[in-house]
Model the fold of this input.
Amino acid sequence: MNGGAAGKDPNAILNECREIDRGIDSIERNLERLRFLQQRAIDDTDASQNTATNRELDALSSETMTLYRNFGHRLKTIKGMKESGDPRNSPQVGRVDRKLKTAINEYQQVDSDFRKKLSAQMERQYRIVRPEASDAEVREAIEDTSNTQVFSQALLQSNRRGQSQSALRAVQGRHEAIQKIEKQMIELAQLFQDVDAAIVEQEAPIQAIENQTYTTEQNVSGGNKHLDGAIVKARSVRRKKWICLGLGILLLLIIIAIIIIVLRVTKVI
Done:
């Protein structure tokens, strides 16, 4: 969708909002499926990333992220158009904007919950190998699964050899899953900021318009004040002219009256 399309079709923005809205509904359905697959992956005794469950989980996660990127880009395009602020379009644009942000937050919560479950499971698996390990040692092993020294030491104990090998594979598989989740959560956070920043991008021209409007109003107000002053001055000048004219006429009548009186008195004499 572009500005030209919106200019030709007055319903272009509303139609695009409806399509994005339906797309977000599909994302929410995906999130329900993701929750189910994540729990199944947790319950699976095989923690490797090559299981059918984990392959489906990865594929659905990729598909869902693609939808987020697509709808985020389309929404930013809409919000970058001046028509999006029209009273006819603004409510729908705002509603879809809030709905997409809510969906992003929801996916972040889904991934956060999954990460906590994976970490808890990794801790349990590690303690199988080293039940005497301190909490600090457990955290260190979970956060850095490249260090297999603790598992190698456990392998020297025959009664824990099988358990150690299984725990090592499980912890490494879960750690790989956690790395994917963290990368995805970072991208979701960035996407949320990008969508939200589209509002900020519009605030500058909007503020400029408001400032120009205010300046125009001030100029008009100032012009009206000057006009009112000019009108008052003009009225004052006209009033003075009428006063002067009245005084002139009165003075002329007085002079005429004096002349008439003087002529009468001269005639009597």
Remarks:
- The longest helix spans residues 161-268.
